[in-house]
Amino acid sequence: MSVLSLADVYRARRRLEGRVLRTPLVESPALSTVANAPVYLKLETIQPTGSFKLRGATNALVRLAEAGCRRVVTASTGNHGRAVAHAARALGIEACVCMSSLVPPNKVEAVRALGAQARIVGRSQDDAQHEAQRLVREEGYAYVPPFDHLDVIAGQATIGIEIAEDLPDVAQIVVPLSGGGLFAGVAFAAKQIASAVRMTGVTMENGAAMHASLAAGKPVLVDEVATLADSLGGGIGLDNRYTFSLTRERVDEVVLLDEASIARGIVHAYEEERLVLEGAAVVGIAALLAGRVRCVNGTSASRGPIVLIVTGANIDIDQHRRIIGAA
Ligand SMILES: *Cc1c(COP(=O)(O)O)cnc(C)c1O
After folding, report:
1. Which fold would CATH assign to domain 53-143?
2. pTM
3. 15-29, 105-119, 231-245: which has the minimum mean pLDDT?
4. Which of 80, 232, 310 to mutate to test the pocket of ligand 1 (most atoms within 8 A of CB)?
5. pLDDT for position 55
6. Ligand 1 atom with the shortest distance to the CA of 185
7. Which ligand 1 atom sits nearest the alpha carbon of residue 175?
8. Starting at the edge strand that comes first in sequence, how are the strands of the sheet with 71-74 ordered?
9. 68-127 per-position pLDDT tens digit
10. 3-state secondary structure of 224
């Protein structure tokens, strides 16, 4: 008995209708030439909060709101926090984002601009996390985790349905990999619909918690290191319930990238695809440019279409300028 069913994913898709965009799948002539196979970009960057995280957060919040919940909390200041804030406002419920005093003011402002409460506590992400847990215990908030939750996974999985609908002969899907909510969801849906599809996860060399956990056969801790792919940082949780096993069951390969390759991906996206992308979103492009994505279609010798999920646009614009300027 699987924890997730394809029916759950179709139900998630109905909940997202009118709230989250059905994003386009656009062929990249430049990358198709590099790969010697058709390459398509799944453009999650055009979601209202600039990343796919809106899918999982919206699915989880619609379900919570239907169950009568009026207040949600998270401790993420990145794309998940933005997504929770946006979805809460759309549903007319209260959102609180707990963060430490070390979070830069522009991130605090971004959360407040989305109508959420920013609660500043302590001096570490751990302190922020504890405050979120306290709000759940003592003040009746519902916690919405960034990846290890079945409604979040089912929301991200709607991307897999869209890809299978738009490109039924898809041979390979390349997914930025961190906590694995995106990978687990997309791999689940895509392999249910197109069982021969090859699923490739891509992440940075330094601090890749899911990769280290897959290698160890169980969730492990890794040291967090600064990376251009900042949205891929963070652990998977030693008490991981869903994303580790769902990912392990369906992952065909994991590709690790160094920082220079990620920078090249940001430059290629800008110059050739005319896209401003954050580091986490370019890892598929970067892996392909580095010759690290080799399409092997399980059923034939032909090189079938490759889809790269382009996950987010939320890069600090000065950092983007510096990377483009240095190229
Ligand atoms: C969160 C995120 C990812 C990784 O998603 P997981 O579900 O944590 O694996 C990739 N790209 C961007 C832009 C993200 O915000």
Report:
1. Rossmann fold (3.40.50)
2. 0.96
3. 105-119
4. 232
5. 98
6. 7
7. 10
8. 117-120, 94-99, 71-74, 142-143
9. 999 999 998 899 999 999 999 999 999 999 998 888 888 888 889 999 999 999 988 888
10. coil
| Pair of tokens at residue 36 | 């010697």
| Cβ atoms of residues 175 and 199 within 8 Å | yes
Which atom of ligand 1 is found nearest the CA of 210?
9
User: How far does the centroid of ligand 1 lie from the alpha carbon of residue 73, in Å?
Assistant: 19
pLDDT, residue 298, reads: 44
CA–CA distance, 141 with 133 (Å, rounded to integer): 9
Residues 6+ apart with CB under 8 A from 77: 97, 99, 103, 107, 108, 111
CA of 234 to the centre of ligand 1 (A): 10
pLDDT of res. 295: 65
pLDDT band of residue 1 (cuts 50, 70, 90) is: low
> CA–CA separation, 54 vs 256, rounded Å?
26
CATH of domain 6-51+149-326: 3.40.50.1100
Q: How many residues does the chain have?
A: 327
What are the strands of the beta sheet with 253-257, ordered from one edge? 25-27, 39-43, 306-310, 172-176, 198-204, 253-257
Positive or negative CA dihedral for 198, 199, 205, 210? negative
| CA dist., res. 218 & res. 212, Å (int) | 9
Closest residue by Cα to residue 91 from 57, 45, 137, 118: 57
Query: Which residues make up the CATH 3.40.50.1100 domain(s) of the chain?
Result: 6-51+149-326, 53-143
What pLDDT, in 10s, does the model give residues 256-307? 999 999 999 999 999 999 999 999 999 999 999 999 987 655 444 347 899 9
Give the Cα separation of 124 and 101 in Å (integer): 8
How many Å apart are CA 174 and CA 199, to the nearest integer?
A: 6
